[in-house]
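Changelog excerpt: complex records now keep ligands as SMILES alongside chain sequences, and the structure block spans every component. Example after the change:
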Amino acid sequence: MVIVGGGIYGCATAWHLARQGADVHLLEAATIASGASGGFGKRGVRANQRDLRELPLMRTAYDLWPRLADDIGACTGYERTGGIHLIERATTGTEGEIGAAETHARVQRDLGIPTEVLDPEQVRDLEPDVCHDVQAGLYSPLDGIADHTATTRGLAQAARRHGATVREDTTVVDLRRDGDRITAVVTDKGETVDVGHTLLLLNNTGAAALVRLLGTELPMWRVFPQALLLRPHGDAASPRHLLGHDHRRLALKRLPDGTVMLSGGWRGRWNAEHERGELIQENVDGNRHTAADVFPPLGNARLESGDASRAESCSVDEIPVIDTVPATSNVLVGAGWSGHGFAIAPAVADLLAQWVITGERPDPLRPFSYMRF
Ligand SMILES: Cc1cc2nc3c(=O)[nH]c(=O)nc-3n(C[C@H](O)[C@H](O)[C@H](O)COP(=O)(O)OP(=O)(O)OC[C@H]3O[C@@H](n4cnc5c(N)ncnc54)[C@H](O)[C@@H]3O)c2cc1C
């Protein structure tokens, strides 16, 4: 089979399939982890405040992450830091009240995600340096962070060790069809690669263009999420947990080298001349000010680096499409992760491999059907 895309999804699915004896060809346009699955820092491995439809996947991923490094024989940088979703306002639109926090905590617990509501003192016990306006927190002790680049490269290596062919610098530009089957992919070098059993389109922002060749329009677009790296001043405090926020666009993680990674929904933009995503200064400033408001010791932190070059596909209802492509019998697509695809990838990739091997859609993937549109 052929897998298009060498991000966490392509590499993890290649590893699962190859170790079960499948003949796997993974084709990556640039290098492994050159898309959303690469770059500096770590990604949040978070269930707290995740879309409810993704929580069963995250429940499974909670079990997979701690042992993934041993399973693939490579570093993942996984740390179970615990995650706190900070609540400042008594009300934020229809959400954000303490009543909403208690309801969210109960529903998350019911779906297997340990979660408790913290009062202001409990928040400060866990995070002494958050601002005084924080009135509550939703705490998920099993949340954490992991090194996305190392994990993705480790998965590619593990797939290779199990016999998968992993090719970089190879862009899929066209598909050959025989009735409802895709028989081959055509690369930018004019080469034709036989698909065999199944074609998996796991190429994130590139998936919509290939699916369009098959007559289907995915309800997705591309964004360039902003990530910043701050160096706290002197011995200033830094966050001890993965921190999110109820109404501000903010995600904070402390990295092992003492820097703090800042993200949370701020965006860069496409630079057509240089053909890459770039930072927008106003958004860099906005993200830093928000971080300093919520976590004042970061007010004097130095900006070490920033990046908005990693494109991500967003879907119209902010959860992915993981499905067969209409009018085809051997093509699966997984895209539209909407900024939170990394954490659930180990669970989804395992299920995708099961789907390919058994021919049956695994139940936890049902909410992500294309037919919901
Ligand atoms: C700054 C940032 C912060 C994030 N934070 C989090 C977080 O905290 N927690 C979380 O869970 N998620 C987070 N995400 C989202 C997460 O990183 C992505 O959802 C995930 O990495 C997507 O993986 P992927 O394998 O689908 O895509 P990618 O890693 O983008 O891989 C797709 C690959 O396909 C290749 N490709 C494209 N078209 C073709 C083609 N035609 N032929 C061959 N190859 C092709 C590309 O070169 C690319 O390498 C974040 C994303 C960003 C950018």
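The pocket of flavin-adenine dinucleotide is lined by residues 4-10, 27-30, 34-37, 43-44, 148, 171-172, 202-204, 206, 225, 227, 263, 310, 312, 337, 339-343 (CB under 6 Å). The two ends are 28 Å apart (CA to CA).
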